[in-house]
Predict the structure.
Amino acid sequence: MAAPCVRVCRQLVGRGGAARRLERGGSAHRNYSTSAFLCQFTAPKQTGSAEEIVIPRKKSWDKLAVLQALAATVNRDHTAAHYRFQDDPYLIPRTSPEFRLYSLSQESGCNAAKYIVNTYPNLFQKDFAEPSIPCLMPEQLEPLINEVSESALKERIQLRKVKASVDLYDQLVQAGTPVSLETTNSLLDLLCVYGDKEPPREDQLEPREAEDQGELAEETQKRRTGRPRKASDLLSVTWRENNNAERIFNLMPERNERSLCTMIRGMIKHGACTKAINMYTDLLNNRMKADVHTFNALISAVPELKEMYNEKLDFIVELLKQMAEQKVQPNLLTFNSALKSLRKCGSIARGLSLQLINEMKSLNIEPSLATFDHLIGIFYKSAAANRLQTDIIFEVLDEIKEKHFVPRDPDDVYFFTSAMRLCLDLKDLELAYALHQILETGNNCVLLGDPYQQSIYYGRFFNLLCMMESIDVVLKWYKALIPSLYYPNMQGMRDLLQALDTENQLQLIPQIWKDIKQLGHSNKQVLVEEVLELMGRDKHSPELQVAFADCALDIKAVYKRDQIHSLQWTATSLGNVTALLLRGGRTQDAWGMLQFFKTNNRVPGKDLLDEFLDCAKESGNKALALDLVKLASAFSLPTTAELSKRVMTEFELTDEQKRSLEELDVDSSDSSDSDRE
């Protein structure tokens, strides 16, 4: 391996003292570590002779250059749904459940088409496409060579026929036909990749993927926290004792480095980490060396092999040291695997992580987004982390600002969501804006991951906006993100309502309620009650009260439609709807809501009854006031006597009406006494 790799391994062995944190600012050759010994190797040495500049005779354009140039002239339509949903405007999702259903249906349709094409290729033999597109034609899924030969075995391996390949190999061995080492190694590759089971078809979900459809949030959270896996989290395909891979490996008359490396990677992939490290020891005893992919797998398996933080750290260092001794050149995944394992080593991993970043620069290996994600995970553990630990995010964003990234590691898609989580915990709006600007640079948005990851990112971003920004800016982002990029969940809409309350912009609630209905959250009890609480808490101008009353009638209709399933009337919701209707001039509807109290075994509050009586006084409606006292008496409310006294004082009543009220007082008093007894 190159001299720089040997140098870093020596540094890793003698790693006394923690490395200092990243230093912000600095020159153009700013380093991640401030160690003088490390920094002296970071900047490239300048030679005395000038570098020769070669001017090409012609410019070689990318095949997509014209399309990319045209795409750069078009801006995203904030009012439209995502382009993936625009094939059929009638089916464009408008709610979060519809979004999930549409996405799954679209994927299911693609899988059904693949199944038909690959199961019945005889129906698609004619190619009418101009120009012809081979990838859209049926694939060859059935073997063409039927004889028992090594060529037939190669064909079945190429077609990924696990059981057929093993059966044909056994037939060749039993017939005494020698199988070349290269073909046997290819068979081992197939068995170790798929765990001695048939691979899932492209038009079918893997068993584990199908089981985890409803547990995606939980699994993602486990991945992000870096906690050790539980037994239930292991892969569904495990490494069985004496499986076909082990049996064929033991039958091989000769083995080379590829044979052992394949077995090591297969064992690690399917959970047999202890067996893998034992086989790695056998590889060293046979004076062989592992390739870079095997070292990557071994480094990623360290958290499963060791318990204590210092043991994990020492084992990672030892594997890197052995890479240097065997002169194996590391690649990006080597460093990413080491950093990912260091996430499970506690705070003692910070110094080593910075040294690894410096070594990547020394070897001219460009970090990917997964590299920075692991680095943030090593330094940042909880919301209680001090500022020294969280300064790492500022250095990372300075490093990747205005850069264009492409997928290079499967974990690249977790960077933006975890970085936005840190912005939310720090309550740093400027940092969140900087991160979002990086996301919108070039095609970096494709590294945001699947729709679930996108929802997490935009949900955290919108939550931070609602807490920290003015309402005008929040509404601007609200229109820009929804529904073209983000379908907010219930918490997102609650954050928006709280922002409206903080800025005293409650006049927008009727419009927000329409969005809540359109987004499919009108059946959420907590959200609906919060809308009613904000509208009914204070009195407003007559025009706004009329708008609130219309909104309350709409909510009442939603309750009537959904109360069997999810929405149930409470005393608070009944009181708010009644008060809103009363303030909006809909006295008859408000009186009808009072009847709902008795139907739903609820009791109206004193403030609501007083407000009813005030309304009756303003309109001079004596009949309404009398009916209100009768209703209070029917509920056996303690306030019946007080209401009756107010009615007799504030209204001109006949003698008969006064006697009627006195009788109600007596009945109510007797009822109250019996209740106390």
Observations:
- Confidence is low (pLDDT under 50) at residues 1-48, 205-236, 670-677.
- The radius of gyration is 35 Å.
- Residues 514-602 form one domain.
